[in-house]
Each structure stands twice: as structure tokens, then as C-alpha cells.
Amino acid sequence: MEEVKSNIENGILTVQLSGRISSSNAAGIEAEINKLADQSGDDLAVLDCEGLEYISSAGLRVILRLKKSNPSLKIINASSEVYDIFEMTGFTEMMEVKKAYRHFSVDGCKIIGSGSNGEVYRIDDETIIKVYKNPDALPEIQRERELARKAFILGVPTAIPYDVVRVGEGYGSVFELINSKSFSDLIIDEPENIDKYISLSVDLLKKIHSVELKPGEMPDMRETALSWADFLKEHLPEDIHKKLVSLISDVPASCNMLHGDYHMKNVLMQNGEVILIDMDTLCLGDPIFEFGSIYNGYAGFSELDHSVTESFLGVPWETAQYIWDKTVRMYFDTDDEARISEIKTKSEIIGQTRIMRRSIKRLSGTEFGKKQIECSRRHLIELVPKTDSLLLLK
User: How far apart are CA 128 and CA 178, in angstroms?
Assistant: First the structure.
């Protein structure tokens, strides 16, 4: 039958299905599959559905019977339409079902965002793709989709990916963001409106932080920050390390939502609405941990090389420092220089703790890495002793 072909590789029998499987041909297809299995003498391990266009309930019952006699049976290369049938009928909970993914190229596309987990490309006026650095990123993609949906339901305006594609050897999430622009691009195009976009960004940040979550609903940033500090035990003077751990430990538990990587590349304007992207870093905790990340985005990561702000955010170093300063002033509604300095110092402690740990793990064998580690070490030795609390809100 043309709907059924097979091959054996390394003792694994794979059956390829194609066309449409309905009540009119399901029995014949089942008989053909069993015949192929009997002839091979191997257990049926894989149903390759790359060529399958449709499967009815009669076809699904065939797969159920095959699964019963071949417990390790899995399905691969299901098209989006066929995968939806498997998902809707509960097959994805009973057995392994893998989608077939379209192949996409980002060659020549503009990067509109970049982070530790991937880069975001503008494909056309309607579409963006986040390409993940990890070649086995499917669990990350699923996690980010779930986090984005959760945030959207809780009132945070965000884009939810509608498709997953292959990009080279890796994966990407596809978003529909028609005629959208990042706040970094808007600031470059409209420098006279920089305060307006910072204000809109701060409004969204406050909205995120106002969302109350349940304990354990998202990663706890205090625990993550403590792991950073613990890692530095052998790299800081004992008294500095002990106080650093104490400062982070004393931050009260909080279930407020945090973005975790908040900067102007991750905030977009779409048809007059402010939209948040890059949701894989969503977490919960006190705002100090958000501001530690914001400090890094605008100042910490580019302190030793100011050109980083151009490549990462698309704006000059001086503009990034202005955005960082204005964000603090607008969020905390203050022009008190002592208060602003206090907030920045506390944010810097968290930010430099992360940078130092990251540099030791990733860059310790490079000259730049050694300079960065020493720079962060110097900041922490200076700032930790004169700080009694990391709390930002009074």
C-alpha cells in the first residue's frame, strides 16, 4: 500500500505513513504494518508521519492497538495539523509524539533583541523569530510558552509564540508582531521622546511587579541569587562573602512577578500598545533582583567595554546610562540624589554578584574574563561593607 513504507536501521523498525488514514483504509493499513513487523522480526519502534495529511478516529484506534503490542512505540514528524489531532485526543499524554518543524533561515535578518538564551530576529513586518542558542531547546521553548501564557492571563501584555521552527541545527519560536518596534529603535528614531518611552517602560515594569503569584509558580530569584553568592565563596574575602550571603538571605520572600531580563530591546510598541517579549526569564521575588538585572543590562555588562551597549541594546553607552538613571528616578518617583545613589548601589551588588559568577564560569580562561572578574570583585569589596540592607521599597 502506498500509505505504508518501512525501513530498519540499527535494529529499529520505522514505518512511514503518508496520505490520509480513515475508516475506508485503516484496517488495510493496520494489516500492512503488522505484516512488515512480522517480516522484519523486530518490534515496531517508530511511526514516521512526515507524509501523513490526516488521520481519523479509525486510524487513531489502529495506533492504540499498535502501542499496546509495542509499548515503546513513538510518533515523529507529525505536521502541525496532525499533531493537533494527537494532542486534542490525548495521544501526546499516552506516548511520545514529536512535531515536524518547518525550516527557517534568518540570514540577512535584523537582530532586534539578544539575551543569554537566544537572539530575536525581525523576519518581516509581521513576524519575529527567537532563535535559541541551545540546539536542544524544545523544553525551553515549551517552558517559555507556558510562562508567556501565564503572564498574559494575569494581565501582562505579551506576545505568545504560535509556531516552532528549525533554524539551522537549532530551534526558533515564531511570533506575530505586526509593525512593532523595540523601544531601543524608537529611542534611536525619536531621541526627543526618550523620556516618554522610559516612562512607558516603567509603567509596564510596575504592572509586572504588581502581579501576585503563588509560591513555586515561577522560579524564586532570591534562591537563584543565593546560588550566585554561594558560588563566590572561594573568590571573595571571607567577611565580604559572609555579608553578601546575609544581605541576600535577609531579602524578604516575595511572590511578585519579575521579568528577569528587562531592557529596552525586550519592550516593543505595537499599534500603540506596549508589548513585552522574551519571557523565558520570568520569575518571582523582590524588585531588588529585577533592578540588579536592569543595572547589568545598561551598565554592568558594558562597564569595561562601552561598545557592548551598541551591540546589545543598539544605543550608545551615554544613552544607556541615561535610561538606567531615569528608570530609577521614575520607578521610585524621586529626585533625591542620596536615595538614587542608594538604589543604584544595592542594584549593583546584585548585578556584580551575577556578573562575577558568570565570568568565572564562562570567561576565566580569557584576558577579558580575568579583568571582568577582578572588576566585579573590586565593586563587591567596596560596596558590600557599607550596605546594611538590599531592600529598595520603603
Answer: 9
pLDDT digits over 164-178, tens only? Answer: 888 988 999 998 877
Cβ atoms of 257 and 386 within 8 Å: the answer is no
Q: Could you read off the pLDDT of 158-210 as tens digits, one per residue?
A: 988 888 888 988 999 998 877 788 999 999 999 999 999 999 999 999 999 99
Q: Where does 4-100 sit in CATH, by number?
A: 3.30.750.24
CA distances from 154 to 1, 117, 256, 289 (A): 51, 24, 12, 21
Which string of DSSP letters, residue by residue, matches 10-64? TTEEEEEEEEEE-TTTHHHHHHHHHHHHHHHTS-EEEEEEEEEEEE-HHHHHHHH
Asked if CATH classification 3.55.40.20 holds for the domain at 180-386, the reply, yes or no, is no
Instruction: Measure Cα distances from 23 to 27, 57, 85 in Å.
Output: 8, 8, 16
Radius of gyration of the chain measured on its C-alpha atoms = 26
Length in residues, the chain: 394
What mean pLDDT is predicted for residues 109-113? Answer: 81
Interior CA angle at 344 toward 376 and 210, to 5°?
Answer: 120
Cα 131 off chain centre by: 10
Q: How confident is the model at residue 138 (pLDDT cuts 50, 70, 90)?
A: confident
CATH 3.30.200.20 fits 104-176, yes or no: yes
Distance between CA 229 and CA 246 in Å, rounded?
Answer: 10
State pTM to two decimals. Answer: 0.79
Strand partners, 9: 12
Which of 204, 219, 205, 306 minimizes the C-alpha distance to 254?
219
Domain residue spans of the chain:
4-100, 104-176, 180-386
Burial per residue of 265-275, b for 16 or more beta-carbon CB atoms within 10 angstroms, e otherwise: bbbbbeeeebb
For residue 310, count other CB atoms closer than 10 A to its CB.
15
Strand ranges of the sheet holding 12-21, from the earlier edge strand across to the other edge: 4-9, 12-21, 44-55, 74-78, 97-99
Position 145 scores a pLDDT of: 87
Residue 216: Cβ within 10 Å count:
9
Best CA proximity match to 112, nearest among 200, 208, 202, 188:
188
